[in-house]
Amino acid sequence: MKYGIAVFPSRKLQDLANSYRKRYDTKYSMIPPHLTLKDPFPVEESELEGLVREIRKTAKECRPFKLEIIKYSSFYPVTNTLYMKAAENKELIELQESLDKGPLERKREHPFIPHITIGQEMDYDELSDVFGRLKLETIHHEELIDRFSLLYQLENGAWTVHETFLLGEDNE
């Protein structure tokens, strides 16, 4: 089964992201707005318990962090994806790096760029038009993130939470 690790921001930020996603994100109905900490990876049922123990340990060792959305951006020309860029900070980077060590280590397809996707699989003209408008807009949002979730993918492609972990606390 495929698993992934993500942060779900506040309802306020999710609502803002969804105002774009419902029109520009082909995966709108599959998962709420999120910041991916670990891209999807396969896990055998027999490995799941050990994996969850490692994630609990990581969560306990890492601290809550400030999620600061600073601008709209695009991954073009690599992919036709629009996103809200999150500022990198020490606690966020430490969490992401900790989730990529030991038994959790997996080869990344792309470097870690903290973001919340608002549009993907767009044709070039639409991407260019929408991104041109978004570059003119100012966005600044801050909130404290104190948890993240291990997700798994259902047969229909949708994602659901397996377990949520509090940062800096005992999750046993």
UniProtKB/TrEMBL annotation:
It comes from the Bacteria. Keywords: Hydrolase. It is an enzyme of class 3 (hydrolase). GO terms for molecular function: hydrolase activity, acting on ester bonds. The keyword Hydrolase applies. The keyword Mitochondrion does not apply. Its EC number is 3.1.-.-. InterPro entries: 2H_phosphoesterase_YjcG-like, Cyclic_Pdiesterase, YjcG. A motif (HXTX 1) lies at residues 34-37. Belongs to the 2H phosphoesterase superfamily. YjcG family. PANTHER family: PHOSPHOESTERASE SAOUHSC_00951-RELATED, PHOSPHOESTERASE YJCG-RELATED. This is Putative phosphoesterase C6Y45_02400. It comes from Alkalicoccus saliphilus.
